């Protein structure tokens, strides 16, 4: 298969983890006779420095013509003082919006060898398998008006959703629940927010089309508590943009590290942007210690969701699992008796595992 992939390394640790994505893509191409035509473009702070904008036109054009996009991370203290419209994060929000990537899938699936790496009790964490379906192109991050008054003493952000925007993401949630255990938890703040009341209304309406799915509503504040005190009650969670952003970082604790979580940002035609859930981690950038697994697992999601390469995706997941079973991990993971390695070594070991593939043993993941 021949596919065009755009790489957007971005800022901070973005470039370091992108090396992991490139290495596994190269290996998969060789092992399976695929051709990945890869081009790199600027986004975020890197683009501000080079082109004076967080989202250059040539980046958008390249992404529009691609089969899929891999993104590292954007942002960092260097650009924190920039005006709102010119911050690195605007680049990421802009590419999601301009490509119409409204459905953000964030699987939270623990790996057996990391079950003791979570600060939570092992019995709570063991066997956890959650999919967060987050709305990605609406809500507070995009609503207008947004800004500061002329005297600087008043600020406004707007939480706006249309019924259609809610309907399409809720449908994604139901579809995911149907393909998994048939349980959907919709998370909102319907006791306070009008947008959440419409959200709940839509979920109730849509539930009639999916009689095989059991639906539950939870308010976001207590859902945040239950996510770490009784995580196994959740299977698919569907929620709006800001809540999904926060809950997914919280849920990463179940896996042992924020560095473990991958994500897919999708629309309806198979084109997608794939990135780890974490940010640019400026506190460790350049030290060679960042965990590349969230990025590598995002690459596996790309192969599966955008290219239909289920077996290749499963191979990457197997290579990651075997590496962890062999005791290798980066220093963000607290594994007793494990062997701490740097980013490059972790990538090298995964590539080695991939090259000696045992495809007959590959087990497909159950994100959806
Ligand atoms: N998708 C994106 O590009 C995102 C960008 N950001 C941006 O990233 C910058 C830093 O934000 P933070 O709140 O610090 O969040 P962060 O996710 O970058 O880091 C939070 C903590 O987790 C650690 N961490 C994150 N990923 C890791 C990995 N792969 N391996 C090991 N440790 C890891 C970091 O070292 C840090 O201590 C900000 O400018 C923010 O706007 C934040 C979230 C998402
Ligand atoms: C950096 C933001 C634009 C978003 C974020 O934190 C995320 O998508 O996880
Ligand atoms: Mg986030």
TrEMBL record:
Highest rank taxon of the organism: Bacteria
Q: Give the residues the record marks as binding substrate.
A: 96, 106, 134, 221
Where's the Isopropylmalate dehydrogenase-like domain? 4-350
- Which residues are tagged with the site Important for catalysis? 141, 189
**Pathway given in the UniProt record:** Amino-acid biosynthesis; L-leucine biosynthesis; L-leucine from 3-methyl-2-oxobutanoate: step 3/4
Name the reaction it catalyses: (2R,3S)-3-isopropylmalate + NAD(+) = 4-methyl-2-oxopentanoate + CO2 + NADH
Name the Gene3D superfamilies for this protein.
Isopropylmalate Dehydrogenase
What are the subcellular locations of this protein? Cytoplasm
| EC nos | 1.1.1.85
Q: What are the alphabetically sorted keywords of the record?
A: Amino-acid biosynthesis, Branched-chain amino acid biosynthesis, Cytoplasm, Leucine biosynthesis, Magnesium, Manganese, Metal-binding, NAD, Oxidoreductase
Instruction: Give this protein's Gene Ontology molecular function annotations.
Output: 3-isopropylmalate dehydrogenase activity; magnesium ion binding; NAD binding
Any single biological process term in GO: L-leucine biosynthetic process
Query: By its UniProt entry, which Pfam families does this protein fall under?
Result: Iso_dh
Q: Where does Mg(2+) bind?
A: 221, 245, 249
Reported cofactor(s) = Mn(2+); Mg(2+)
Where mainly found?
cytoplasm
- Cofactor binding note of this UniProt entry: Binds 1 Mg(2+) or Mn(2+) ion per subunit.
Subunit text? Homodimer.
What function does this protein fulfil? Catalyzes the oxidation of 3-carboxy-2-hydroxy-4-methylpentanoate (3-isopropylmalate) to 3-carboxy-4-methyl-2-oxopentanoate. The product decarboxylates to 4-methyl-2 oxopentanoate.
Q: Which NCBIfam families match?
A: leuB
Quote the protein name from its UniProt record: 3-isopropylmalate dehydrogenase
Write down the species: Salinicoccus roseus
- Taxon lineage: Bacteria, Bacillati, Bacillota, Bacilli, Bacillales
């Amino acid at each position: 298969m021949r596919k065009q992939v755009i790489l957007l390394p971005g800022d901070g640790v973005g470039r370091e983890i992108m090396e992991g994505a490139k290495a596994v893509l190269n290996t998969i191409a060789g092992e399976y006779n695929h051709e990945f035509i890869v081009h790199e473009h600027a986004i975020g702070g890197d683009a501000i420095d080079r082109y004076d904008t967080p989202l250059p036109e040539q980046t958008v054009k390249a992404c529009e013509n691609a089969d899929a996009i891999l993104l590292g991370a954007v942002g960092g203290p260097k650009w924190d003082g920039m005006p709102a419209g010119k911050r690195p994060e605007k680049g990421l929000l802009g590419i999601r919006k301009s490509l119409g990537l409204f459905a953000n899938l964030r699987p939270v699936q623990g790996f057996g060898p990391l079950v003791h790496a979570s600060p939570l009790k092992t019995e709570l964490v063991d066997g956890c398998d959650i999919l967060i379906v987050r709305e990605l192109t609406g809500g507070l991050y995009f609503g207008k008006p947004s800004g500061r008054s002329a005297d600087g003493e008043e600020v406004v952000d707007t939480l706006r959703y249309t019924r259609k925007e809610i309907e399409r993401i809720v449908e994604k949630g139901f579809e995911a629940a149907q393909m998994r255990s048939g349980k959907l938890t919709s998370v909102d703040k319907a006791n306070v927010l009008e947008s959440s009341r419409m959200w709940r209304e839509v979920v109730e309406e849509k539930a009639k089309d999916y009689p095989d799915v059991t639906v539950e509503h939870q308010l976001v504040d207590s859902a945040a508590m239950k996510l770490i005190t009784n995580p196994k009650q959740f299977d698919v969670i569907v929620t709006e943009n800001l809540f999904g952003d926060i809950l997914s970082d919280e849920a990463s604790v179940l896996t042992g590290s924020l560095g473990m979580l991958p994500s897919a940002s999708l629309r309806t035609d198979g084109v997608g942007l794939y990135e780890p859930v974490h940010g640019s981690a400026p506190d460790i950038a350049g030290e060679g210690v960042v965990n590349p697994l969230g990025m590598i697992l995002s690459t596996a999601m790309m192969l599966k969701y955008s290219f239909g390469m289920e077996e290749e995706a499963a191979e990457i997941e197997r290579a990651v699992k075997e590496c962890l079973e062999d005791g290798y991990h980066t220093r963000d993971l607290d594994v007793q008796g494990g062997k701490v390695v740097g980013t490059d070594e972790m990538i090298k070991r995964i590539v080695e595992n991939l090259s000696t593939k045992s495809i007959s043993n590959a087990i497909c993941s159950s994100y959806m």
